[in-house]
Design goal:
By secondary structure, this protein is α+β, with helices and mostly antiparallel strands. It is elongated and about 80 Å long.
Length: 143
Amino acid sequence: MFDILSVIFKYVFVIIIYVFIFTIIRMIYLDIKTIKTISGDLKAYLKVLNPLDTIPYKMEDTYVIEDNLTIGRGSDNLVVIRDPYVSKHHLKILLDEGNYFIEDLKSSNGTILNNSKLEDVSILKSGDIIKVGDIDLMFIHKG
């Protein structure tokens, strides 16, 4: 009887180890899959900080900012976030005289910039964190 239980526990333990290893490999694969190479000539872009597999709608890993960029729930925005807490036209980022500015477009729930509610137009600095609904974006500027 003890021999049978010993063999059963041994196989159960081996299965648990294999499931653990499989889970780790799957997580590594999903991280590698979401990595997108950013061209060296890009000046500014937004990086989504949330794991893409936890977002219930489709989003890209990075969004390039040319002269201006709009974010919102509406399909006419350059960055579409299908979050119910995001307004149809939530915010915009624009380039003026070499600086990038962020402006909340009178959204219902507001925009958070570096843990503070965005009240007025602000200059963005590389590394700033923008929170729109449940999505965290990092502004990166190479310039």
